[in-house]
Amino acid sequence: MRKLRTLVVVFLLVLTAGIPVHAVGFQKITGTAKKSGLYNMWIDKNSRLHIRKPSAKKDLASIVRCNGGVSDGKTIYYWNGNRNRMSIFQYSILSRSRKRIAHFRGIHQITGAYKKRLILEGCLPSESTTMDSLYVYDTKTGKIKRIRQSCECAGIYNQFFVFKGTTGAISSTRLGVYNAETNKSKILTDKCWYMVQNGSQIYFANEVSNTSSYVVRKLKIYRYSMMTGKKKGVSKTVTVSVLENNHLSKGKFTYFDENGIKRTLRF
Known about the structure:
- By secondary structure, the chain is mainly beta.
- The protein is 6% helix and 55% strand.
- The protein contains one helix and 24 strands.
- The strands form five sheets. Strands 14, 15, 16, 17, 18, 19, 20 and 21 form an eight-stranded antiparallel sheet that branches. Strands 1-6-7-8-9 form a five-stranded antiparallel sheet, with no helix packed on it.
- It is elongated and about 60 Å long.
């Protein structure tokens, strides 16, 4: 009996070894052809979205008047319009059918999607600010909800959407993560100067104290895991001239100190 089970397992492994596994999740459609599911998709300069099999010379289908969109290889959510108003459409690649699912004033792009939730950027007329905010639109219920005011999407990992504040001057800003699975957001800090995303990890330079100078701050690097929800300091505190050309990457922070001397902090 044990030998029979072993043979069955081996047979199943051989049977499924040649089946291609496609990445699950929505990807942004741009002007460069990218594979989503079984198809390559791109938007040309005439705002036409092309859907084509990689080995084909002709489109399987195309959509006119498309200013941008996202797709998981089966469904496409796309929009047309401008910064004042836009319509959102849902397109099924299998049936090649479309329907308009929403129309907004002030919303100007779809940043990403997760399952039945679309992440939108813009500024609804009801807002008290003219700066862009981040919203989530539920395609099932038809309801739109503001995630955070005066912020933009800074990164995506599966159901997690990283957002940071939009400011008109050089200053620290809010940094947080929205979980589209739970429909909840979390603020990591209100004093982020620099950030970089590496997969499910976010590294950010956080202001721990200021100085008597407007352009000099004391910063410390933190790491946040979107999978575990834990934040940890990974560097010592350094004094940084925030008006200089500083750069944060995974494991390294290149910065100018209060005397204008270029330094490198490794962590």
